[in-house]
Amino acid sequence: MWPDSPEIQAALIQAIGTVVAAAFGVVIWALSARLAQSRDRREHQLELDGEAKRRDQRILDLVTAIHSEIVAGLCAAGDQLTPDEIAYAIQQDTPFATPDDTDFVFETLQEDITILPESVIHSVVQYYRITRQSNLLTADLRHPQFLAQTAPEKEKFLSGLLSVVELQKHWADAAVEDLEEFAADRGMDLAKRRKTAQKLFTDARQTIAEAFRQSDELDQLS
């Protein structure tokens, strides 16, 4: 029942107004807090998404760089395994070759190999391991102990080295396939880049062979 006294009525109205204002203030505070929390969550999620995007891009960049490095090694190894090159190498009394220690991309990953995708780590590591072994054996061609060996002993060593180079090519093919499959799933055509690199290598080899042929013809004419 509403009181008849004006003083009491005024006091009640003031009290009700105070309660309503306080309740409204609580509602405004709660809404502001929720908006602030929502904004913080969105900003945090955007930051996480940005970090994930940057990491994914870094991984793709590394995959591209590793692919380029292995393709270069694949072209070189394939050139060494032609029948003519194998026959030439075995026939040499003092075979000579220079180790290819230019794999600087992989060197930067050795302390944290887990940055690479799990699907490519096995074949990539196997390739670089056998490549390191190939380089060590190639360096031994200059060792005095090798140079002092008999012709049959040298031929046996060279056969072993060529077998390692063949295994190197096998793991290069496997690694390149894994890297290209990973990149293809993310919209990048590394296979096209590989074919371009191989064509350039083949063209260069043919150009050099033609230059030697023409030089031999000039020597015969002179």
Task: Give the overall silhouette.
Answer: rod-shaped
Approximate strand percentage: under 5%
Figure out the total of helices: 7
Which structural class matches the secondary elements? mainly alpha
- Average pLDDT confidence is 82
Question: Which residues form runs of ≥5 with pLDDT under 50?
Answer: none
Q: Helix-strand pattern, N to C?
A: HHHHHHH
How many angstroms does the end-to-end distance come to? 132 Å
Number of domains: 1
Portion of residues in helices? over 70%
Number-wise, the strands total: 0
- What is the gyration radius calculated from CA atoms? 36 Å
How would you sum up the major sheet? Answer: none
Describe the structure.
Helix content is 81%, strand content 0%. It is rod-shaped, with a radius of gyration of 36 Å. It is built from seven helices and no strands.
Give the topology, please.
Blueprint: H1 6-80, H2 83-91, H3 104-107, H4 118-139, H5 144-147, H6 151-184, H7 190-221
Which key features would you list for this structure?
single chain, 222 residues, mainly alpha, 7 helices, 0% strand, rod-shaped
Q: Briefly, what is this?
A:
The protein has 222 residues and is an all-alpha fold. It has helices spanning 6-80, 83-91, 104-107, 118-139, 144-147, 151-184, 190-221.
